[in-house]
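Q: I'm writing up a methods section and want to include an example of the input and output format. Could you take the sequence below and give the corresponding predicted C-alpha cells, formatted cleanly so I can copy it straight into the document?
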Amino acid sequence: MPLEQNTRLTVSAGIASSSVAGVLVLLKLWALAQTGALSVAASLADSGMDLMVSLGALAAIVYAARPPDEDHAFGHTSAEDLAALGQALFVTITGLVIGWAAVARLLAPAPTELKEEGSGIVVMLISILLTLGLILWQRRVIRRTGSRVVEADALHYLGDLVFNLGAILSLAAASTLDLGQIDSVVALGAAAILILGALRVGRGAWDALMDRAADPKIAEGIAEIAGNWPGVRGFHDVKTRTAGSRVFVQIHIELDGDQTLAEAHAIGASLRRAIIEAYPQADVIIHKDVARPPA
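A: Here is the clean output for your methods example:
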C-alpha cells in the first residue's frame, strides 16, 4: 500500500477515535448522574482519558506524517511512539485509580446503593455498539499500516468495551439480585486488564524509541529477497529499526566489481523496489560492495 494511503488511513482512525470518545463521554456523564455506579464511573473515566489521548494521538499522527526536512532527515514518525508511550502511561494511571476506588468500596462497611439501572444499561449498550464499530476500523488500519499509536488507541477502546460490558453486568446484578458489590469487583478486573495492556503497548513504544530491531520476520524476509535477487552475489549487515509505523532498513549487497556503475545501480534500485513492495512501511538504504573473488 502506498505511504500516502497509509497516512490517510491512520489520520482517519484518529478522527474517528476522537469523535467516538466525545460522544461516549457525554452519554456516560448522563448515565453516571442517573445510576451512581462505580462501574459506570470507571467507564466514564476511561472514555474521558480516551478523548484526551485520542486528541493527542491525532496531533501526533498529523505531525508524524510530515515529510523529512533539514532537521529531521528520517522524518517525524517517532512522534507516534512518544504519543503511544504517553497513552500507555495515562492508561496505567487510570487503571490504578479505578482499582484503588474499587478496593475502597469493597472494604467499606456498607455497600453503595445503585439507582436507575435500566437507564445505565441502555447507555452502555449504545456505547458498546459505537465502540465495536470503532475497534473494527482501528484493527483494519493497524493491519494495513502497523501504526503503533493507533494500536495504543485501540487498547483504550478495548478497555472501554470491557468496562461497558462490566457495567451492564453490575447494573443488572444490582437491579435483579441486589448484588451491588459486583460493581466494584467488575471495576477491579477491568482496571487490571487496562494496566496489563498499557504495559504491553508502552514496552513496544519504548523499544522503538530505543532503536530496537524490527520484527525478525521482516529481516528474514528481506534476506530471502536479497539472497535470490539477480546480480546479487551475496549480502551482509541487514539492520532494521522502527519509528512509529515506519521500518528503517539497511543492507549491504555484494556485486560484480567488473560491471558498470549503471548496471550496479540498476540492480540495487530494483532490489530496493522489491523490498518496499513486500514491506510498504519500509525505508530502505542499500550499500553496494564489491564481491570477493572466489578462493
